[in-house]
Amino acid sequence: MTNEEILSNLAQASMDSPYRGKIFQVGGSVRDELLGLAGSPDMDFACELDPLPFLDRLVELGIASGSVSTYERFGTAMVQVDGCELEFATMRAESYDVGSRKPKVQIATLDEDALRRDFTVNALYKGIEGGPVLDPTKQGLQDLKFRVLRTPVDPSKTFFDDPLRMLRAVRLKWKLGFEFADGLAKAITANADRMSILSPERIQGEFVAILSHPTGPNALQELLNLGLLRQFIPELELLSGVDQGAYHHLDVWNHTLLVMTRLWELNRADSDTVLSALFHDIGKPQTRTVEASGKIRFFGHEVVGKELTEKIMKRLRFSEARVQRVAFLVGAHMRLGHFHEFGTSGIRRLIRDMGDLLEPLLNLVEADSQSLSPDVQPLNMAEIRRKIDEVSKETPRSSLESPLDGKEIEALLNIAPGPAVGKAKAFLLARVLDGDLLPGDKILAKAILLQNWPSLADKSLKN
Predict the structure, then answer these.
(1) Thinking of the domain 1-146, which architecture would CATH place it in?
(2) CA 436, 439, 440: angle at the middle one, nearest 5?
(3) Is domain 244-399 given the CATH code 1.10.3210 in the classification?
(4) Which residue intervals of 85-243 are DSSP H helices?
(5) For 340-393, what is each residue's pLDDT tens digit?
(6) pTM of the predicted protein model
(7) How far apart, in Å, are the Cα atoms of 208 and each of 182, 263, 450?
(8) Where are the domains of the chain?
(9) How do residues 74-87 score in pLDDT, each as one tens digit?
(10) 147-232 CATH
(11) Taking a C-beta distance cutoff of 8 angstroms, is the pair 128, 81 a contact?
């Protein structure tokens, strides 16, 4: 169902009711329509009356599915129509306590409602029955025409009241190709420390949205310049100015931005890979050393980087599964640094260790390799992928396991469950990866294990 069809259904539902002419589409969906953009299918609405009875009516008529969700904290309610989220709020004025972004709400006129909005281009209203676009601030349509991001009231008040709007300002500027109005950037810098009142989840959501667009690297630079990045990921600010030596023409910060840009150019910028590119060298400031010859080294930066990635993503309340995926990629991003030295066994180990993260790793490595100094030959990723595909077809990842399971090893060696069983399985797996033992060859596996177990068991006891 298109937005037009949804609006038509809402208009029909408002007929012969007090809500006729009292409900207005507002915000990003109006803005994007005027810009000729597809935008999000989700829509926001402002009502001159309490919207809850109208939303109940939508459910009763079968226009909305499920039930009405209310968010008393923010004075809004939401229903779903054909999978689209429609959020409704009574027209209101807001005031804020210093330590909270939860507003105190009072009923207001449409003109007053417009003043509480984040930006003038998001304070444009359109009746669900159609008609002209209303511009209560008298600046929204002009700012839209000239692509200017301006707050309806003094920007310091707008950002002090709800500091999440500062991140949104950066996102919209770069996503839509706008410019900040005079004084807006200065107001953001002055209120940057207000981000301390935001929940990690809210910051995460806006930050991920920033990174989910090709202009994400530009927006990141803006976050750094405005003093916003240090408010929630100060570790990234430390990358700026860190010289990397001969193989790099950029410092760590600008190299990181270039790697992210390369992912978009390669059309491989899925969310987790973009995050892994953002954090892939975050361990370099802590591991930088300079040899007597002047050569710069970053020994173990991928290990430190993995630990820092986990710390940062947990702090921002990412899901544990996502933390582990991104951190694993960061920790593995140096594994292909010397791929020309890889034999078949090394490729098998790579396939087994990376699992479904193998392709994201290859994408990250390719973007990283293409971001070195122009006089450094990048990795031949086509050849690397060909070799990996060749080995994978010969020995699929599902076959890269010990031919004997734990029970079979216990029976063969007459041992109890415990670490020794794991040691035996690891020994057999290593033989499979080295190509000395075919996957599934239980007979040879038993012979090899019986032959080598005395020395393995002796080492296990010494350890």
Answers:
(1) 2-Layer Sandwich (3.30)
(2) 125
(3) yes
(4) 110-115, 140-146, 155-161, 164-176, 184-191, 200-211, 216-226, 229-232, 234-237
(5) 566 788 888 888 889 899 999 999 999 999 999 999 988 889 999 999 998 888
(6) 0.85
(7) 27, 16, 53
(8) 1-146, 147-232, 244-399, 406-462
(9) 678 999 999 899 99
(10) 1.10.110.30
(11) no
